[in-house]
């Protein structure tokens, strides 16, 4: 019996090998490079299930196939994109064009086809820093966002706030005015949802006008100290919550409802990236308010009298290393960024450097806000910031430590701002000492 | 697999046919041996499919889990470096990892309430009561709803100004606490939800055990003048002692590995994080799949240990009711 069983298992294993062998064949053929002939089947995997469902992607596919008649495009939308894509990457079957899920720069070459030298793209495209490694570019951003604070202009007017706040103190005063003068919740944290809490962190760099803020933070044994970007960002949250300027019961927040609430003036402000503007405007129109009620301002801080806003790339498009139609995939990416009209439709900053800013960021020009991009980490330190974050279990890009911050601020957990920042510094410092030599 | 299975099955059919024709096979002994060998194999072949799936879907992933727990894998990288017992050392030395077991105490305490209620209802409904079956159905129903739906239902119940607050206001409670927002209450709210959900299961276990007790015992007890209360203590409780013991083990294992209710309702925020939620966060938020695997293995060992300890302390006694 034992023999039979092992024979059966061996047979299964063989079948598995044969199957995986099949799907990989052809990916390494000599003519299958990104500069080859544009033809074949192309599978595009996207996180924008909404655009797949409402037919927007069908239009893109039709237009692309008109240009390249030899290519047959199919689109697959995945709802839990990050989670599912990470699992699929362990196979060889993850489509041809993908949005690159979070990974370390040193891991790009394990999964992605190199697109060329970073220096060759510098004149044409923005947002190259995050997805290049040792001078090679592996992905191009689908579009970009600015970071700052989304607010309801009508609520601010009702509260008598005529000038947009440019410092933390002014911002808290404005929130206090909203609390006193209107029925709106001044600042909505979306604590239960979690991820909206993390959006403010993208402002790292704009407070001190330091494009290297992330690089410095990765080596700073005590980054939660007055004068740093992360201190300013987390302080704003803490102080607003501690002053009672946020929602009453943060454990029962709801993202979809918050869109309607800010659109109809029940919420004053939320710290979100500019990608949210178009969604909030849509919610406003659907609920009988005006799209003009949704305003966007820079993070309330100024360095030497000027306000800065960090702009950064959204998901990056990359080509699977195991794709059988690499040339078609590369053609799709270039066409999508340059000619599809995606960024204009979505109100995003175009990755193409020559394109102008979207209309929804017009407020930045009026307020004299300067845009900035952050610098890439130097060679050998690309993953240092995330390594320190993981090791210290302070999830800079996640909600866990910020939820604790909110808990402390609203008196639901022990401690105060000083003690919690000291604890964060201690944990962070220990990991910096361990990892950053 | 299909090919290996079809051969002996065909041989088996032949054997059946010859037998029904009433001609006992008289063949050279060598051929008979060859016939009997696949025949003896038949039960194993029926088992093979089920065991194969079990191996593939349960034991193989579990073996992987043990393997990952000795690596520094981040869940994505194609190379996994072996790091020996580093992950286990970290599980036992990092106070942040073990402190969350405190939360399990709330659920453990709640499980006694759960068993008490279940026993109470099971006893009442095992005697003839009007609408007996309707009530049994109502009490068991919550166990059939999936945990995600329950999480959402209770989320609305506990909202400020939600259903619970409204009902309380009819009784004059004007200033109810924040059921999930107040860290002193949040864990009790969640444990209460858990009681509501799993009570039906205990109830059915107890009910089944109580109904299997022979009816003459009650009759005899009644003739002797025993009250219902005396019947309960002298007949029902000792009669279902084994099931109570089983429920107790399930309660301990369950309260150590609470997951879906707090995960859906609070995401582990506000001091409601449990060991399993923390394991998930370690694996997918902090990308330390190796460490998370070690945590999962440690939890498995703890549950096994507690069960073993419980069996040693309260061994199964044969109960003789007569």
Automatic annotation (TrEMBL), chain A:
Keyword Signal: yes
Keywords of the record: Cell membrane, Lipoprotein, Membrane, Palmitate, Signal
Signal peptide from the UniProt entry: 1-29
Coiled coil: none
Family matches, as InterPro entries: Bact_solute-bd_prot1, SBP
Pfam family, one: SBP_bac_1
Record-linked PROSITE patterns: PROKAR_LIPOPROTEIN (PS51257)
Keyword Membrane listed: yes
Gene3D superfamilies assigned to the protein according to its UniProt record, in alphabetical order: Periplasmic binding protein-like II
SUPFAM superfamilies hit by this protein: Periplasmic binding protein-like II
Protein name: ABC transporter substrate-binding protein
Taxon lineage: Bacteria, Bacillati, Actinomycetota, Actinomycetes, Micrococcales
UniProtKB/TrEMBL annotation, chain B:
Segments traversing the membrane: 44-62, 105-127, 139-158, 195-213, 243-269, 289-309
InterPro entries: MetI-like, MetI-like_sf
Domain ABC transmembrane type-1: start-end pairs: 100-310
Membrane topology annotation: Multi-pass membrane protein
Main location: membrane
Family as reported in the entry's similarity comment: Belongs to the binding-protein-dependent transport system permease family.
Compartment list: Cell membrane
Keyword entries, A-Z: Cell membrane, Membrane, Transmembrane, Transmembrane helix, Transport
This protein's name: Carbohydrate ABC transporter permease
Organism: Agromyces aurantiacus
Domain of life according to the entry: Bacteria
């Amino acid at each position: 019996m034992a023999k039979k069983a092992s024979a059966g298992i061996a047979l299964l294993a063989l079948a598995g090998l044969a199957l995986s062998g099949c799907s990989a064949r052809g990916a390494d053929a000599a003519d299958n490079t990104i500069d080859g002939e544009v033809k074949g089947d192309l599978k595009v995997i996207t996180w924008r299930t909404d655009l797949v469902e409402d037919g927007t992607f069908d239009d893109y596919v039709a237009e692309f196939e008109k240009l390249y008649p030899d290519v047959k495009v199919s689109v697959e939308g995945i709802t839990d994109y990050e989670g599912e894509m990470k699992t699929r990457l362990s196979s060889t079957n993850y489509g041809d064009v993908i949005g690159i899920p979070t990974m370390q720069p040193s891991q790009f070459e394990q999964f992605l086809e190199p697109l060329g030298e970073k220096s060759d793209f510098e004149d044409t495209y923005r947002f190259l820093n995050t997805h290049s490694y040792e001078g090679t570019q592996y992905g191009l951003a689908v579009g970009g966002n600015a970071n700052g604070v989304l607010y309801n202009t009508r609520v601010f007017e009702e509260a008598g706030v005529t000038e947009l706040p440019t410092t933390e103190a002014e911002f808290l005063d404005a929130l206090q005015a909203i609390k006193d003068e209107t029925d709106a919740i001044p600042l909505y944290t979306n604590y239960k949802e979690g991820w909206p809490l993390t959006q403010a962190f993208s402002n790292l760099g704009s407070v001190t006008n330091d494009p290297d803020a992330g690089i410095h933070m990765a080596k700073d044994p005590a980054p939660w100290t007055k004068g740093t970007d992360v201190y300013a960002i987390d302080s704003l949250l803490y102080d607003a919550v501690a002053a009672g300027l946020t929602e009453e019961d943060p454990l029962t927040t709801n993202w979809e409802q918050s869109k309607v609430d800010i659109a109809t003036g029940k919420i004053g402000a939320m710290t979100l990236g500019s990608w949210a503007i178009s969604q909030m405007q849509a919610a406003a129109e659907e609920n009988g308010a005006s799209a003009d009620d949704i305003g966007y301002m820079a993070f309330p801080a100024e360095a030497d009298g000027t306000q800065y806003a960090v702009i950064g790339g959204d998901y990056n498009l990359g080509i699977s290393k195991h794709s059988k139609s690499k040339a078609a995939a590369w053609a799709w990416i270039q066409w999508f960024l340059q000619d599809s009209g995606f960024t204009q439709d979505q109100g995003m900053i175009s990755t193409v450097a020559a394109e102008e800013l979207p209309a929804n960021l017009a407020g930045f020009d009026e307020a004299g806000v300067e845009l900035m991009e952050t610098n890439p980490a130097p060679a050998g330190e690309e993953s240092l910031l995330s390594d320190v974050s993981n090791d210290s279990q302070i999830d800079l890009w996640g909600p866990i430590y910020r939820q604790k911050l909110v808990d402390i601020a609203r008196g639901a957990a022990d401690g105060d701002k000083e003690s919690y920042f000291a604890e964060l510094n201690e944990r962070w410092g220990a990991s910096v000492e361990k990892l950053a030599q | 697999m299909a090919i290996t299975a079809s051969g002996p099955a065909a041989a088996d059919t032949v054997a059946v046919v010859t037998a029904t024709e009433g001609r006992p096979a008289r063949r050279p002994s060598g051929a008979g041996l060859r016939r009997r060998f696949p025949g003896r194999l038949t039960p194993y072949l029926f088992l093979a499919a089920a065991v194969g799936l079990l191996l593939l879907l349960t034991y193989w992933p579990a073996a992987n889990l043990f393997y990952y727990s000795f690596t520094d894998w981040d869940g994505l990288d194609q190379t996994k470096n072996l790091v020996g017992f580093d992950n286990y050392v970290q599980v036992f030395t990092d106070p942040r990892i073990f402190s969350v077991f405190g939360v399990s105490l709330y659920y453990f305490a709640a499980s006694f309430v759960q068993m008490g209620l279940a026993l109470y209802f099971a006893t009442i409904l095992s005697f003839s009561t009007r609408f007996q079956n309707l009530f049994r159905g109502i009490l068991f129903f919550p166990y059939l709803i999936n945990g995600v739906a329950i999480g959402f239902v209770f989320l609305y119940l506990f909202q400020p100004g939600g259903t619970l607050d409204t009902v309380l206001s009819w009784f004059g409670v004007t200033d109810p606490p924040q059921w999930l927002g107040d860290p002193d209450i949040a864990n009790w709210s969640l444990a209460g939800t858990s009681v509501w959900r799993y009570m039906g299961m205990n109830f059915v276990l107890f009910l089944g055990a109580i109904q299997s007790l022979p009816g003459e015992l009650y009759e005899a007890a009644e003739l002797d003048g025993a009250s219902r209360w005396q019947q309960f203590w002298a007949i029902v409780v000792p009669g279902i002692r084994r099931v109570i013991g089983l429920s107790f083990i399930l309660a301990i294992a369950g309260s150590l590995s609470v997951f879906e209710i707090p995960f859906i309702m609070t995401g582990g925020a506000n001091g409601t994080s449990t060991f399993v939620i923390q394991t998930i966060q370690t694996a997918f938020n902090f990308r330390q799949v190796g460490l998370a695997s070690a945590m999962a293995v440690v939890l498995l060992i703890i549950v096994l240990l507690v069960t073993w300890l419980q069996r040693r302390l309260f061994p199964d006694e044969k109960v003789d009711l007569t």
